[in-house]
Amino acid sequence: MEQTLLSKKMLLAGEWVWRESMIEVENPQNGEIIAKVPAASKDDALIAIEEGVIGAKIASNLSTYERMTILNNAANWIEERKNVFAETIALESSKTIREAQKEVKRCIQTIRLSAEEARRIKGETIPFDQMEGNENRVGYYERLPVGLIVAITPFNDPLNLVAHKLGPAIAAGNAIIIKPATVTPLSALLLAEAFEHAGLPKKILSVLTGYSSEIGNVLVTSSSVRMISFTGGNKAGNDIASKAGVKKLSMELGSNSPCIVLKDADLKEAVDSIVSGAFWAAGQNCLGVQRVYIENDIYEEFENAIVYRTNQYKVGDKMSELTDMGPLITEKEAIRVEKLVNEAIAEGAICLCGGQRKGAYYYPTILTNVDPENKISKEELFGPVVILDRVEDLNEAIEKSNNVQYGLHAGIFTKNIDLAFKAIKQMEYSGVMVNDSSDFRIDSMPFGGIKGSGIGREGVSFSIEEMTELKVVCFKIGKT
């Protein structure tokens, strides 16, 4: 890998800076130190906010054409260096090189979508004369930038989830401070470098590498920050919401996604889709399949097929094109997953395959006979573990699917359109994928959860809506 292309400085209001205190970035596969980045301080956060307020004014004055040009230039820069971006993702995160390559492609598309949507930020005329006495009033509303945004991103998609906040923010004319996950800062820094080369004016963007415990409160509580866009856990989201004060919030807070497999489903399609959906990025995926409800008539056939397919999944070196799954982000996370699985087994769960840990690796695991009130059934596991459960019919599957605090995505496999629509109507999820696992997503669709899975929506055009404010303009004109 061309390490010289990796910036090890952080971007503070458009300036690349070092700090005495540094954070070591590890490859989770072997613990090797691959880079050091600055540990941002509270003072750095205050500077980013102060300069970001100025940056917001600069950004709002960029024409639509200028915003589009910057975004397209950034996408071009990434595309020309897509191998460096993919290798960086794979080295610092859990993703295999094949998974990383797909993430880079999605990032490029996200940035290009942002450029396209910049031209579609529109308002509408308002018929003020609909109310008696207002016949001589005309006007409209328009969308304006919200101002300075703080974006806090997780480790599992260290490039594209940053792009999903940065691209729409620039398209809408905002300034933005990005706080990437401490364990995966390099991809975000590379993306910032792309925007610098694309001609983004200084002060509009900061990427603060550091610990949330040090700079988090400064960023989320500042009255100068007009919006927080957060992707992460439910507990952290609630903590941010309690501290943020009066500002816009957009939060994707994870899930415990179910899939339903009915007796008329294409079993091979269902098995392949669910295995991919459960074990992509070592199961560290907010859309990942965690629970599968299978009709009794096909349960044994499905169980045998998914265990066979899972045992074929290749676990190993992330940088090999032959590998299907790499390690979890840290050995600590693998130990956490191991503990939860062992607790479930101690309470009567049966492990059909996997259930083994080696360092930061936890092998793809399938459980059955899990107590529905066990933590592994109710909470977001965020690891390569899927639970199988037999049901009598769709009604029971829907009831069990809804019996969690989350509501992000769900999947159902069936050839019966009536049953599909019944599930769509009754499942308490913001997205229902028919004949796909819960893990399906494209970057232009609205994305976000209900219940404990969050507030607001991402997906480029929908993020832009979140990142803008409406202003009403009314003219009182002389009578003619």
Automatic annotation (TrEMBL):
The UniProt record lists the keyword Ion transport: no
Family: Belongs to the aldehyde dehydrogenase family.
Organism taxonomic ancestry: Bacteria, Bacillati, Bacillota, Bacilli, Bacillales
Keywords: Oxidoreductase
Name of the protein in its database record: Aldehyde dehydrogenase
Molecular function GO labels: lactaldehyde dehydrogenase (NAD+) activity
Keyword Iron (UniProt): no
A matching Pfam family: Aldedh
InterPro entries linked to this entry: Ald_DH/histidinol_DH, Ald_DH_C, Ald_DH_N, Aldehyde_DH_dom, ALDH-related_metabolic_enz
Boundaries of every Aldehyde dehydrogenase domain copy: 19-473
Lineage: superkingdom: Bacteria
